[in-house]
Amino acid sequence: MPQKTFSIIKPDAVASGKAGKILALLEENGFRIVAARMVRLSQRQAEGFYAVHRERPFFGSLVKFMTEGPVIVMALEREDAVKKLREVMGATNPANAAEGTIRKLYAESIERNAIHGSDAPETAEQELKYFFNTQELEQL
After folding, report:
1. What does the pLDDT look like over 118-129, one tens digit per residue?
2. DSSP class of residue 98?
3. Residue 62 phi/psi, 5° resolution?
4. Catalytic: 53?
5. Which long-range contacts (CB under 8 A, 24 or more apart) does 20-29 make?
């Protein structure tokens, strides 16, 4: 049965014109885009979304980065979507990412790493609800 996961094409990838290539790579890897929207995160939205990292030293710079320009938030679907998206994205640090992964191809650095993806099914459920309502996720 298909599983849904959540992803964000981050401001660095949108600004550099890589969003279309990232979307194409996701589709080539069997993901169906269930819902997508371009948004400009407010500071409050970014702080809320990344609240799990609030105590980490990089929290402030992460919030600043995620609010610097538009992002594309997406609900993606395929078999084993959470695990497969993590594989397609590659390691957080693009220097350690496998060849052909999104981060190896398009990330600038460990922080400006082009894409976010949920790390577990439970996280995906929470993150999807942060940006999409139930009707948006079920109508397609």
Report:
1. 999 999 999 999
2. P
3. -65, -45
4. no
5. 21/105, 21/106, 22/102, 22/106, 22/114, 22/115, 23/72, 25/88, 25/102, 25/105, 26/76, 26/85, 26/88, 29/78, 29/84, 29/88
pTM value is: 0.94
Contact 62, 17 (CB under 8 A): no
What is d(CA 135, CA 120) in angstroms, rounded to the nearest whole number?
A: 22
Nearest 10 degrees: Cα torsion 84, 85, 88, 94: -130
3-state DSSP assignment of residue 20: helix
pLDDT, tens digit, 9 for 90 and up, residues 21-35: 999 999 999 999 999
Of these residues, 4, 10, 78, 116, which one is catalytic?
Answer: 116
